[in-house]
Amino acid sequence: MSKAREPTVSTETPTPASSWKDHPLRVAAASAAVTASVLIALFGTWILPTQTASLKNQIDALSAAGAKDTNSAKQIADLKAQAADLERKLSAAQLPNLFFVGDPYPAGLGRVRVGDPISRVAAVYPDSAITKYEGYWTVEDQHAVFNHIAYYFDEKRRDNSITAIMFHVAYPTSSVKLQDKLVASLGAPKEWHGGNFSWATRDKVTVFKSVNAYFVLMREGRVPGDWPKE
Q1: Residue of 139, 50, 138 whose CA lies nearest to 93
Q2: Which burial class, exposed, middle or buried, applies to 205 when counting CB atoms under 10 A from its CB (0-12, 13-18, 19+)?
């Protein structure tokens, strides 16, 4: 790591342009903008998804208990109304901020990552959203844009670790230009034959995209079975 440079002090009288650049009001405004961006990101990627999942788990638990009395039915109705309101807010927060710079996971969907045990999916998402198949689990309707996610895992490993994740774009939002969003987050891709693209990332996973409907994350060194050869 390079040594930090000592600050220099100028004895020259600043011009109006340069003095505005360093004006306390401008510095404060810039700081406020950064803080607001961080809060918006936190709101859409952690706070709202966590609250939404918690409400859905409560609804599932009450429904599974088979409660039929008036108070329980009203409680379930109230929870469903709260969950619907949170999902509307979540959609509004996620659509403009689909990815963060350098992060291959969509905003709000980074709590389960390649390399995690498959049990992590059940810890993050409500049971009602999960369908379990041999070798992979799917999660439905937990994101405004990527409404279908498939988590593939290695059944031969003791921890059943996730080896790949496929994110499908929801049909109502299929106008989302996935290629542009990935380039803005990860930079220029490696281009393969047939309009296929890949990105190496600092997370030690590789992003693969061939069509606008979905993209795949895989452990570094792996490629999809149908991926073209160089």
Answers
A1: 50
A2: buried
User: Which positions ≥6 away from 120 have C-beta within 8 Å?
Assistant: 111, 112, 162
Determine how many CB atoms are found less than 10 A away from the CB of residue 98: 23
Inter-residue contact 118 to 156 (CB < 8 Å): no
Report d(CA 63, CA 43) in Å as an integer: 28
pTM: 0.63
Closest Cα to residue 74, out of 93, 94, 59? 59
What's the Cα-to-Cα distance from 34 to each of 90, 152, 200, rounded to whole Å? 21, 36, 28
Same domain, 146 and 211: yes
- Following DSSP, what letter does each residue of 54-80 receive, concatenated? HHHHHHHHHHHTT--SHHHHHHHHHHH
Task: Report the pLDDT averaged over residues 135-160.
Answer: 91
Tokens 């788990």 appear where?
57
| Domain assignment present for 74 | yes
Residue, of 27 and 223, whose pLDDT is higher: 223
Same domain, 123 and 160: yes
77, pLDDT greater than 60 = yes
Residue 190 lies in a domain: yes
End-to-end Cα, the chain, rounded Å: 37
Q: Are 206 and 220 in contact (CB under 8 A)?
A: yes
Count up the domains in the chain and report the number. 2
In terms of domains, do 84 and 156 share one?
Answer: no
